Amino acid sequence: MTMFDALQRLFTASEDRESAARGMKPATAAAALMVEAALADGVFAREESEQIVRLLRRGFDLDEDAARATLQTAEGLVSRAVDHHQFTRVVKDLPKEERLQVMEDLWAVVLSDEERTHEEDSLLRRLGPLLAITDRERAEARQRAEARRH
């Protein structure tokens, strides 16, 4: 493969990802970010999976089957994703209040397995600006998620 072929494949793959992101539903993009948050510590615990289903049902008004199907789709997307930008671009188009809810939901997933790691904190710290959420808003979302647990 020549350098030109390699570059052409790279740009074509990038265009395909952008096309897929344009057609992605906000629930799927949010679910993918939740899967990434769950995987940040290297373990996708059953508690995290069940929490994602609950959050999708509540936040996106999905029934049980639709929430589980959305989670399954998100898992597949995350397994093939090069980065999380294709997901954050979709969520960033949501109104601020909904983006803040997604951030709170990300924290709820991270906290659902009773372990909070540096990797999880780091991921959510990186996602904040990509979702146009300030550090303060991210911290407040974490506090709301912690309060909901108790």
TrEMBL record:
> Which positions, given as ranges, span the membrane?
none
Q: Which SUPFAM superfamilies match?
A: TerB-like
Ranges for domain Co-chaperone DjlA N-terminal: 28-143
Which Pfam families does the annotation name? TerB
Q: What is the name listed in the Swiss-Prot or TrEMBL entry for this protein? A: TerB family tellurite resistance protein
Organism whose genome encodes this protein: Marinicauda algicola
